[in-house]
């Protein structure tokens, strides 16, 4: 009884936060669609779902997200092998660099991609511009890092002995991978795939920029319906489709993710050097580098062009307010704002994430209890799958009265970002906690340690490194977040992605160059943060 | 384990330090916006993210009016309008700037604005919104969306540049035109309206010809102009782009002339309005700000800070603007009420034609 009460108490804070800053606003927006002039009108919403356009949009969203997820896995899993199971110089720098796309604002990536694949670009002959293939490549560009990190972390902590035993018994490398390694990695791969699928299915800028307006996804459609047409019924219908799809996805993945014994077998063996048999992972990593490297190189090259030649003028200009006062604040000030916001978002998502992870990872004593934990786990994934526009408008119409008169609160931006980062944090922490043998805690308790002391001596040492990894993720998500941030009321403190968007949207060669330079600065900042995190977490346990 | 224990206090201390130094918590001034007697001390402006008011002018307003100016900027003109409609009755601030003539009817119909008859500067009367008889919206600036051409490209190719909407569908100009889409971009929507004004009910036919002639559509203005246009930031290949009448002022070559020009027969004029919000806490401050936006100082700063023309005919334009940014004398027009009534249908039909 006391145990249950403790767990409920722990879950209360994150649930309250999720309730106020997610459930309430989203429910508010959806009910705007259902009530027309104060009358409940379900029929109109249902009618929207049967429109041919809606069906087309939903279908495109599903298949493009599936294709994006598949490509991310295809490239990411072998790359994870090379980057986490093999030793070579520059490995940690490479790992940190591959996370950069994750935070780049889509508007800039769109420009960088199109400089490459557009009619005039070096890859223009491929005819990719405005095609569905470009969208899928763009989705993989953003998400392959998630796969590498999540699967790589699990792979790193995998006991190599079963695979070695299989090899000694005569199984070839492919056979070993299929029968020993893959089953052990399945939970991590499924987790990563589900998160990547959600990211792909709610991608916004990529679909519009790279698809040349020929494609609409559920997310872009909600944006158009809400901000342009004010057709709240149709937007509500699509929001419900989004929610149902996430619930279905979570139900499927929670089954696939389940393993008989979650206790992690941890190893700290020094990884071997690259061998001849590693060519598939080397090839995949090279492809990832190409996919990620080319657009980033295009950005860097563009940022170093000013006034018809090579120069650092664009970077120098970042400390000013733009050539024609295009900005209220210099980009350097915006970077400081971004970093401060990211610190807030990080501690918020870590605090909530630890609480949620503790609750969902304790071994359940009954079937109902396990169900409840599963639900809780799924609930905190929802913010990944709901449109930032729905959430943003929802904030405005629901958080407007005391005691929740919060819509002008400057903390709304970090809170929204923390919610977006929370699923990643929980997915990083929960497996580590779940891997602790409960008997250790029981031993600590029987030796007289209280719950807090037990947590500090048993859980925290194991949690330490994954916590840092999660902090890195949360920090990166916050640095690059654009959708919700651009939508929320901000007083004169724009973050760097907002400033970049502003710069690139105005004429003048200088503004264009500055936007590229500011993106490079954002990317470099992220890489440095990631590298620092990388150094701190030596034998990683963190897995999504 | 031992390593962990030794490092813990130091790391916790550093963490705490970082948190207190970097956090935004407590950064707010906790200002409730009123004095002890309930008199408002600030005026809250709700606007779109392109709004820029130079710092010295903001300070001048605060000094003149005695109110602190709080700017809440986010989203584009459409998002702004819809936000105001959804928060009607409990407005997000006192005054708004940035609703344009393509969204103005919706704001008026929904009653989000309170009438305020500001004294307009010379020449501004022509920018009033047709049908706004109560003067709820005050015109502040305008900019026309026009097709732009790269004159140097056409000179190098020994070809006469296009001059009309019809020319864009002429096979002689095949694969040369790029424009942002109407569904995702405000200039894109303005261009659709220009074609509706020009061709009336036959506009879908025109768009079919335009697309068949290799017109390229992008998500937003920056994509079209910076990536695909020959005079943009990148290395584009298309010498005809949809942009603004002021754009030629930003493509000045070393010899002091502009490399591009706007086709003045293809323009749709966008006017941006300011207005007092219905239910404002500080209506006096709101009115003061509307008046302030019409002062010669603010009007003169508009071109450089927001890339738009002032409504005040008396203020002097920056040199490049005066020389190279020509405004259309007789832009194409669509009645705002008609836009409000048909936006949905037009956009759907447009999407069908362009995504085939």
TrEMBL record, chain A:
PROSITE patterns attached to this UniProt entry: ABC_TM1 (PS50928)
Annotated localization: Cell inner membrane; Cell membrane
Family: Belongs to the binding-protein-dependent transport system permease family.
Every ABC transmembrane type-1 domain range: 58-253, 335-533
Record-linked PANTHER family: INNER MEMBRANE ABC TRANSPORTER PERMEASE PROTEIN YDCV
Entry GO terms, CC: plasma membrane
GO biological process, one term: transmembrane transport
Lipid bilayer topology: Multi-pass membrane protein
Transmembrane segments: 7-30, 57-80, 92-113, 133-152, 188-212, 232-252, 282-306, 345-362, 374-399, 411-430, 467-489, 509-533
Protein known as: ABC transporter permease subunit
Keyword tags: Cell inner membrane, Cell membrane, Membrane, Transmembrane, Transmembrane helix, Transport
TrEMBL record, chain B:
Record-given protein name: Thiamine ABC transporter substrate-binding protein
Native source organism of the sequence: Nocardioides agri
SUPFAM superfamilies recorded: Periplasmic binding protein-like II
GO BP: any one term: thiamine transport
GO cellular component, one term: outer membrane-bounded periplasmic space
InterPro entries cross-referenced by the UniProt entry: ThiB-like (IPR005948)
Keywords from the named record: Signal
Position of the signal peptide: 1-21
A Pfam family reported for this protein in Swiss-Prot or TrEMBL: SBP_bac_6
One annotated GO molecular function: thiamine binding
């Amino acid at each position: 009884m006391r145990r249950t009460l403790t767990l409920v108490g722990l879950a209360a804070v994150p649930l309250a936060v999720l309730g106020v800053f997610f459930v309430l606003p989203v429910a508010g927006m959806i009910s705007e669609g259902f009530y027309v002039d104060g009358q409940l009108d379900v029929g109109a919403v249902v009618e929207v779902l049967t429109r041919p356009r809606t069906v087309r949009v939903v279908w495109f969203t599903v298949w493009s997200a599936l294709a994006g997820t598949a490509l991310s896995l295809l490239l990411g899993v072998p790359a994870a092998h090379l980057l986490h199971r093999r030793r070579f110089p520059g490995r940690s720098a490479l790992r940190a660099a591959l996370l950069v796309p994750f935070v780049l604002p889509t508007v800039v990536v769109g420009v960088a991609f199109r400089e490459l694949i557009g009619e005039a670009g070096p890859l223009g002959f491929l005819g990719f511009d405005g095609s569905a293939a470009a969208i899928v490549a763009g989705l993989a560009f953003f998400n392959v890092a998630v796969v590498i990190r999540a699967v790589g972390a699990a792979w790193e902590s995998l006991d190599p002995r079963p695979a070695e035993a299989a090899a000694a018994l005569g199984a070839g490398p492919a056979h070993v991978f299929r029968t020993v390694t893959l089953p052990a990695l399945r939970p991590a791969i499924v987790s990563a795939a589900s998160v990547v699928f959600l990211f792909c299915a709610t991608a916004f800028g990529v679909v519009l920029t790279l698809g040349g307006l020929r494609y609409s996804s559920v997310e872009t459609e909600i944006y158009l319906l809400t901000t342009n047409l004010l057709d709240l019924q149709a937007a509500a219908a699509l929001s419900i489709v989004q929610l149902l799809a996430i619930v279905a996805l979570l139900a499927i993945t929670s089954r696939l993710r389940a393993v008989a014994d979650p206790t992690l077998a941890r190893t700290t063996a020094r990884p071997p050097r690259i061998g001849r048999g590693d060519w598939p992972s080397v090839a995949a990593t090279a492809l990832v580098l190409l996919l990620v490297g080319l657009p980033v190189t295009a950005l860097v090259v563009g940022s170093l062009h000013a006034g018809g030649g090579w120069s650092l003028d664009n970077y120098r200009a970042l400390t000013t307010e733009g050539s024609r006062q295009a900005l209220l604040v210099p980009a350097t000030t915006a970077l400081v704002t971004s970093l401060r916001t990211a610190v807030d978002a990080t501690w918020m998502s870590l605090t909530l994430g630890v609480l949620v992870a503790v609750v969902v990872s304790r071994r359940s004593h009954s079937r109902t209890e396990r169900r409840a934990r599963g639900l809780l786990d799924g609930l905190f994934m929802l913010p990944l799958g709901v449109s930032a526009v729905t959430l943003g408008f929802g904030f405005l119409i629901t958080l407007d009265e005391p005691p929740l008169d919060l819509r002008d609160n400057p903390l709304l931006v970090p809170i929204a970002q923390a919610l977006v980062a929370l699923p990643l944090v929980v997915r990083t922490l929960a497996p580590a906690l779940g891997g602790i043998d409960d008997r250790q805690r029981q031993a600590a308790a029987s030796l007289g340690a209280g719950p807090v002391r037990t947590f500090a001596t048993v859980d925290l040492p194991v949690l330490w490194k994954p916590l840092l990894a999660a902090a890195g993720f949360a920090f990166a998500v916050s640095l690059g977040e654009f959708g919700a941030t651009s939508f929320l009321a901000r007083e004169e403190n724009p973050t760097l992605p907002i400033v970049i968007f502003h710069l690139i949207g105005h004429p003048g060669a200088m503004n264009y160059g500055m936007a590229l330079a500011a993106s490079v600065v954002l990317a470099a900042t992220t890489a440095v943060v990631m590298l620092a995190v990388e150094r701190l977490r030596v034998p990683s346990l963190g897995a999504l | 384990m031992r390593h962990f224990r030794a490092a813990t206090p130091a790391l916790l201390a550093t963490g705490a330090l970082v948190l207190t130094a970097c956090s935004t918590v407590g950064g707010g001034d906790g200002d409730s916006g009123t004095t002890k007697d309930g008199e408002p001390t600030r005026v809250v402006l709700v606007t779109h993210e392109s709004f820029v008011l130079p710092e010295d002018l903001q300070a001048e307003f605060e000094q003149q009016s005695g109110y602190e100016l709080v700017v809440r900027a986010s989203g584009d003109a459409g998002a702004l309008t819809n936000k105001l409609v959804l928060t009607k009755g409990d407005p997000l601030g006192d005054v708004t700037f940035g609703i344009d003539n393509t969204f103005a009817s919706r704001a008026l119909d929904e009653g989000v604005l309170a009438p305020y008859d500001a004294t307009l500067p010379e020449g501004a009367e022509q920018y009033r919104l047709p049908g706004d008889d109560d003067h709820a919206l005050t015109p502040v600036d305008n900019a026309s969306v026009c097709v732009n051409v790269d004159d140097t490209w056409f000179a190098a190719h020994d070809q006469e540049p296009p001059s009309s909407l019809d020319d864009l569908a002429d096979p002689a100009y095949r694969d040369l035109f790029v424009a942002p889409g109407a569904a995702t971009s405000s200039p894109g929507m303005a261009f659709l309206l220009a074609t509706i004004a020009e061709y009336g009910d036959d506009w879908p036919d025109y768009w079919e010809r335009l697309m068949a002639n290799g017109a390229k559509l992008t998500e937003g203005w920056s994509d079209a102009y910076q990536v695909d246009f020959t005079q943009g930031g990148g290395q584009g290949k298309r010498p005809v782009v949809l942009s603004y009448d002021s754009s030629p002022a930003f493509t000045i070559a070393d010899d002091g002339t502009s490399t591009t020009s706007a086709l003045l027969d293809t323009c749709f004029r966008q006017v941006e309005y300011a207005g007092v919000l219905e239910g404002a806490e500080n209506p006096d401050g709101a009115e003061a700000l509307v008046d302030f936006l019409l002062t010669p100082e603010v009007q003169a700063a508009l071109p450089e800070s927001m890339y738009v023309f002032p409504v005040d005919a008396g203020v002097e334009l920056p040199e490049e603007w005066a020389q190279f940014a020509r405004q259309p004398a007789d832009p194409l027009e669509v009645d705002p009420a008609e836009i409000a009534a048909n936006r949905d249908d037009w956009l759907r039909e447009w999407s069908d034609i362009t995504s085939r």
